[in-house]
Design brief:
The chain is mostly helical and 54 residues long. Helix content is 69%, strand content 0%. Keywords: Plasmid.
Length: 54
């Protein structure tokens, strides 16, 4: 049986996991998950509002 790789960058995994959780929380807002706003500026405003509420 091969030995597990011990060269893992745990700091990179930790930061990537934090970003994935943030994106998941943002997608829980209905307007962001389904992207009702078609203009990029309006969508960005909704992302900002959702980020403030988090």
């Amino acid at each position: 049986m091969p030995e597990p790789c011990t060269l893992v960058n745990w700091a990179a995994y930790r930061s990537r996991y934090a970003i994935e959780r943030l994106i998941n929380r943002l997608k829980q807002f209905r307007r962001i998950g389904t992207r009702y706003q078609k203009l990029a500026a309006n969508y960005l405003v909704m992302v900002h509002i959702a980020a403030i509420r988090i």
